[in-house]
Amino acid sequence: MAHIGMHVRPAVPGDIPLIRSLIRELADYEKAPEQAVATEQALHQHLFGDSWTGIAGRRGPVAECLIGEVDGVPEGFAVYFTNFSTWLGTPGIYLEDLFVRPAARGRGLGKALLQAVAAVAVSRGCGRMDWSVLDWNRPAIEFYESLGATPMSEWTTYRVSGEALAGLARGQGK
Question: Exactly one of 29, 80, 94, 144 is catalytic; which is it?
């Protein structure tokens, strides 16, 4: 059962320092603190600014964020963005990050955040919601499976970033 003083709300620009702090806490938890290099300026631009020119020249943020609070204290967040399934012919939601501070775990905040993102997906006519979980993160895997999520065991995630991404864009390979 969810904690009575629990609240999930959309992030606002004033939450940028909090969001950055939560990202760093998540990176520490995932044993990769050196990879969390996002600046407050970049977060503001991409969560609240006109960082992207999309369909028909519309501009806006590339991702959205929800803040989870327990008794008025921010204890977690969810960052997500829209993707598209060609097979379903519908948009989807990709959950980039879901994190609840250790002291607040087990009280239903993670479930409340995940439900809030799912509600966004349903309200927008999305056909699915996807995310990735580190193989070693058994607590998260068990949590997600308890809510009906299934692993995509036949799929392997690939990534190109940094200089490899720039090289690919220039038509260069390894």
Answer: 144
